[in-house]
């Protein structure tokens, strides 16, 4: 359930935080999305021996945070059981419009939905984003020939089945305080610019038009909240940026000295940003934006962006780099969901079984607004490769879950062939190229089959998901169906053979009595049924997909 009896909770003057220490400490603070992760901004007060408290006003929305002890030890909030699905081990809470604080627990379910699910409906998104498989790339890392090289790769994307490309920033990067040869690609010096090393405006327009001609949408990565510290406007319009007492521009997020933060209190700045986004939308025919670090952007500005950009292109889609339920109400089509990576690893480590997997999955599904679309990921720009995270053999069943469960699947460049060298986005500060060799052909073919199955079968992107419980703790099985179309999937996440025996109940008997045809399996054994005690053989890490029809 969601509860207000936990800490943090609504206090008399805002959100109440508490921390209890077993030993004497010098100080405690709270840092999170509500204060740009600044550990110096909100210090707790010691109210009694080793008991610390803080009350602060926090805007509505889902907030991630950590407790900071003695200025340098960042820890989960021991009093908050909700750990976020961002893969960075943060505590999470949702502050409502009236200041109440809701903490998600695994008791949230279809029968016991959360407040947001019961009371809010997600905004209506364009049909194309519902059927999307999104692929993120950085141009220099992906191809040596810039926009022309991307145009030459359209055949590769079509073969794989990708229908949405997300281009990481390609604008000019600031020089001041730059790290590495090329600097952080998100330290944009001019929102209207193109780094000439990637090509020309005409070459970018041609790439987008060719992508569209081949049924591929293109999304632009937009840097919210900041520009480079030497952004061209820091001199002409310093009031657009956050400034210290000495009038020097700065960015409040720690360890980002090469950025200058945007001043959202300045209406002229907001208009400038929206006009720049319209320039790319109208002039280049981008289909939408991915909004970087939008979890620290004011809600009203996100809603304003949506409203204004929709006047230019009604079918626009906005992806929020956040885990915020409220972003689905009036601004963004997708929020992030890193649960596939987290839950699969939890099974690998023996911390959960299929029953807990289902409970946690449902607790998130029914704590977001009805109809909310989440962008599901195994890898993203700030995380390591999954082959390094939980082993190469598990990457195959993990891909099955990503592509066939609910949510909009997202791939990081190279993920489809188990690329080995990408670490995180800081790789892009330097002379970096994807390593196309060795190329895991089996993994590529696995993704290719699953992507084409998903995009061509409404059951996977429009239909319902129903888990089918059974006897094997490390096997996940579920039905996907839409109208008369139905599929049964069995995915073995363990290193041993499994023989799942399904529960004898009405729901199981409903599909067990129907005709089932194996349309795909990843095991190397002969494709035939092998039973034991009524269970169906699944080899280690194997995927089985059945098409289920009446009769």
What is this structure, in a nutshell?
It is built from 17 helices and 26 strands.
Please explain how this structure is put together.
26% of the residues lie in helices and 23% in strands. The protein is of the alpha/beta class and 551 residues long. The strands form six sheets. An eight-stranded parallel barrel has the order 10-11-12-15-16-17-18-19. Strands 3, 6, 7, 8 and 9 form a five-stranded antiparallel β-sheet that branches. Strands 20-21-22-26-23 form a five-stranded antiparallel β-sheet. Helix 10 (327-330) links the parallel strand 16 (317-320) and strand 17 (334-337).
Cα shape: globular
Uncertain residue ranges: 1-5
Rg calc: 24 Å
Mean pLDDT: 94
Structural class call reads alpha/beta
GO molecular function, one term: hydrolase activity
Protein name: Alpha-amylase family glycosyl hydrolase
Pfam family, one: Alpha-amylase
InterPro entries: AMPK1_CBM, GH, GH13_cat_dom, Glyco_hydro_b, Ig-like_fold
Helices and strands, with pairings:
Elements (H helix, E strand, L loop, with lengths): L8 E2 L4 E6 L7 E5 L12 E4 L2 E6 L4 E9 L3 E3 L15 E5 L5 E2 L12 H5 L7 H4 L3 E4 L1 H4 L3 H7 L1 H7 L3 E4 L33 H13 L3 E7 L2 E3 L4 H4 L22 E3 L5 H18 L3 E5 L6 H14 L4 E4 L6 H4 L3 E4 L1 H10 L5 H12 L7 E5 L8 H5 L4 H10 L3 E5 L28 H16 L1 H4 L2 E4 L7 E8 L2 E8 L13 H7 L2 E7 L9 E2 L2 E2 L6 E7 L2
Parallel strand pairs: 10-11, 10-19, 11-12, 12-15, 15-16, 16-17, 17-18, 18-19
Antiparallel strand pairs: 1-2, 2-5, 3-6, 4-5, 6-7, 6-8, 8-9, 13-14, 20-21, 21-22, 22-26, 23-26, 24-25
Helix pairs in contact: 4-6, 8-9, 11-12, 14-15
């Amino acid at each position: 359930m969601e509860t207000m009896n936990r800490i943090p909770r609504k206090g008399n003057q805002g959100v109440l935080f508490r921390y209890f220490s077993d030993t004497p400490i010098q100080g405690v603070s709270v840092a999170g999305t509500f204060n740009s992760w600044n550990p110096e901004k909100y210090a707790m007060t010691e109210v009694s021996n080793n008991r610390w408290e803080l009350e602060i006003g926090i805007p509505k929305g889902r907030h991630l945070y950590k407790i900071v002890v003695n200025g340098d030890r960042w820890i989960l909030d021991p009093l908050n059981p909700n750990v976020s699905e961002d893969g960075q081990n943060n505590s999470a809470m949702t502050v409502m419009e009236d200041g109440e604080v809701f903490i998600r627990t695994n008791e949230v379910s279809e029968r016991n939905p959360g407040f947001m699910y019961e009371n809010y409906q997600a905004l209506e998104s364009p049909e194309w984003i519902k059927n999307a498989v999104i692929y993120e790339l950085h141009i220099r890392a992906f191809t040596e020939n810039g926009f022309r090289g991307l145009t030459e790769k359209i055949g590769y994307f079509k073969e794989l089945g990708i229908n949405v490309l997300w281009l990481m920033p390609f604008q000019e990067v600031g020089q001041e305080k730059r790290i590495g040869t090329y600097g952080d690609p998100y330290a944009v010096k001019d929102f209207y610019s193109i780094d000439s090393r990637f090509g020309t405006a005409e070459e970018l327009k041609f790439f987008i038009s060719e992508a569209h001609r081949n049924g591929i949408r293109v999304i632009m990565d937009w840097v919210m909240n900041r520009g480079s510290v030497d952004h061209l406007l820091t001199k002409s319009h310093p009031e657009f940026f956050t400034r210290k007492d000495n009038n020097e521009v700065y960015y409040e997020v720690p360890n980002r000295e090469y950025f200058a933060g945007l001043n959202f209190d300045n209406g002229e700045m907001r208009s400038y940003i929206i006009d720049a986004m319209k320039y790319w939308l109208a002039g280049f025919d981008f289909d939408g934006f991915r909004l970087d670090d939008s979890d620290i952007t004011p809600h009203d500005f996100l809603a304003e962006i949506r409203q204004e950009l929709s006047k230019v292109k009604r079918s626009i889609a906005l992806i929020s780099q956040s885990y915020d339920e409220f972003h689905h109400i009036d601004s963004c089509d997708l929020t992030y969901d890193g649960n596939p990576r987290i839950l699969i690893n939890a099974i690998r480590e023996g911390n959960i079984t299929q029953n807990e997997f289902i409970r946690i999955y449902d607790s998130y599904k029914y704590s977001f607004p009805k109809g909310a679309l989440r962008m599901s990921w195994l890898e993203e720009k700030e995380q390591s490769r999954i082959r390094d995270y939980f082993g190469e053999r598990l990457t195959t069943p993990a891909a099955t879950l990503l592509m066939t469960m609910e949510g909009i699947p997202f791939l990081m460049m190279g993920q489809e062939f188990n690329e080995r060298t990408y670490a995180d986005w800081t790789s892009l500060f330097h002379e970096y190229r994807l390593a196309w060799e060795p190329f895991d052909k089996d993994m590529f073919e696995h993704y290719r089959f699953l992507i084409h199955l998903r995009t061509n079968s409404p059951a996977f992107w429009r239909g319902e998901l129903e888990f089918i419980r059974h006897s094997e703790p490390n096997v996940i099985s579920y039905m996907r169906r839409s109208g008369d179309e139905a599929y049964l999937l069995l995915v073995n996440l363990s290193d041993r053979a499994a023989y799942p025996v399904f529960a004898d109940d009405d729901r199981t008997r409903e599909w067990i009595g129907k005709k089932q045809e194996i349309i795909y399996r990843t095991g190397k054994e002969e494709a035939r049924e092998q039973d034991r005690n009524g269970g169906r053989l699944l080899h280690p890490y194997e995927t089985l997909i059945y098409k289920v029809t009446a009769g």
